[in-house]
Amino acid sequence: MSQGSKDQTPSGPIPGGAEGVSEDLVRLMPRDLVFVMRFMGESQYRLQSHFQDFIRAELEASGVTGETHPMIHLFIENHAILLRDFVFSGVSLSHQFRVEEIERLTGDPMIRVDIWDQLKSHIDTAEKQFRSQAGGLPKLLAAFERPPAPAEKD
Fold this sequence. Notes:
two-stranded antiparallel sheet, mainly alpha
C-alpha cells in the first residue's frame, strides 16, 4: 500500500463493520460486561434533597446563608448532585453481575443475542450520525492541523 492511499479516507464501510465489532464485544462479554444496579426516580430526588439540606446546614453553621450569598443555591444544588452521584456510583460498583449470572437468574439464554442486536444497531446509528456531520468536519479538524512552518528570516 502506498503512503498516499494510507492517508485517504475509506470510501465505504470498513471491513467487518458494525457486525464484526459487535461479534467481538459479545465474545468479550464474559470478561468485560457487568450489569450494574442503578437508582432512579424518587430515590435520586430523595438523596439529592438530603445532600442539599446537609450542605445548606453545614454552610449556615459557617455563616454562609442565602442572605450573605444570594446565589448559594446554585452551589448547593451542584454539589448535592455530585455527592448523590458519588454515593450511587460507589454502591453500584460494589454490586456487579456478570452476564452468566444474569442469564442464570433470568433464565434467558438469549441475552447475548439481544445485546448483539442492540450493539450492532447502535454502532450503525453512531456511524450514520458521524457521517451526517461530515460536512462540518473540515472546519472542526482545522484546529488539529499542523501549524505553518515559521517563516525564515533573511
